[in-house]
Amino acid sequence: MKMYLKILTSTLFILIYIQSNYLLSQTNKENNRAVPQTDAIYKIKYGFFGGLNMPLSPEEMTKIPKIYDKSTESLLNGLEGLGYKTTYIIGFQGKFNFYPEFWAGGNFAYTSWLSKNSCFNDSIPTVNSENFLSLFTFGINSFYYFTDFFYSGVGVDINLFYVNVKENDSKRENIDFVNKYTRLGLNLMLGADIPIFKKVSFDVSVKAQLTNLLGMQNDNPETSRSVAIINQYGSPQESHIILLLINFGIMFSSN
Length: 255
Description:
By secondary structure, the protein is mostly beta strands.
């Protein structure tokens, strides 16, 4: 985590330096004429991004499992943890300027995790489990630019989860498990959109994403089995999944 924070801090300092030089060059070109904010920011922008996705909560996502309980139909599937680490994220985004400081936009993103774990308990020999999770996010966002380049944002996400759990030669019952889930989420972000050419800018943002604010399920009344994406260890209750994203992107202006 410390390494990622150092990378982020260094990147922000570089961006501030680029921004300062860009503003100075623009001032010289315009002979000290003030440029209205509506002219300084393009009306429509679109582009792609990639970055890092760090799971923050629940702790079962990052905890390396050593023991397991009875299986449940969820990503955790009886393990005490998944051992997930920081992974990649890729996507596409667009922004539309509808008022001087305010923008609206949308994005599509994809990310995934895979862990392979060996666990045991007192009564059953060691089991080897593969736990795969992928996430497609469709987001609608609003942005407020408190300077020409730096912004904050909030958004609503439709999150599509895909879960695939396998245990080859398992001594437990047949627990290979595949399922899909849809959840509504919320995100908050801070970012910088720094011009590097006339119609091209570099966008960097830090985003906190609560992926399953609405739509969580616990027990399936027809089967008495968990239908959670990831349940709390020893309980069928679904846990909130919180992610921290650091994104780097290239944005193009259409006008």
